[in-house]
């Protein structure tokens, strides 16, 4: 099976996910959170670093549960920047006052 390269948006979303999980983990060790989530510490490390930008849903659900995060909150956080960019691109272009004749 050939895996398609990730888009820049997917890479950025993975980085936001990793940052969110690191913040939520706080001072807990990667080992403690990984074992409680039933995943390997290396998997959690890769997700937190953004090297795994599109982890499997059950993996994220397990980590979120361990960290006390709702999946809705996780999705809202990681997709916030995308919505901001989409909202800005949907806004009509404004003309600079010095360019209006």
Automatic annotation (TrEMBL):
<dbReference type="InterPro" id="IPR001387">
    <property type="entry name" value="Cro/C1-type_HTH"/>
</dbReference>
<dbReference type="Pfam" id="PF13560">
    <property type="entry name" value="HTH_31"/>
</dbReference>
<protein>
    <submittedName>
        <fullName>Helix-turn-helix transcriptional regulator</fullName>
    </submittedName>
</protein>
<feature type="domain" description="HTH cro/C1-type">
    <location>
        <begin position="32"/>
        <end position="74"/>
    </location>
</feature>
<dbReference type="InterPro" id="IPR010982">
    <property type="entry name" value="Lambda_DNA-bd_dom_sf"/>
</dbReference>
């Amino acid at each position: 099976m050939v895996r398609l390269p990730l888009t820049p948006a997917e890479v950025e979303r993975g980085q936001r996910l990793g940052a969110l999980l690191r913040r939520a983990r706080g001072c807990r060790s990667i080992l403690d959170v990984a074992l409680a989530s039933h995943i390997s510490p290396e998997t959690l490390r890769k997700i937190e670093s953004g090297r795994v930008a599109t982890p499997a849903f059950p993996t994220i659900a397990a980590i979120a549960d361990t960290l006390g995060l709702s999946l809705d909150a996780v999705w809202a956080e990681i997709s916030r920047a995308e919505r901001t960019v989409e909202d800005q691109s949907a806004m009509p272009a404004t003309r600079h006052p010095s360019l209006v004749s």
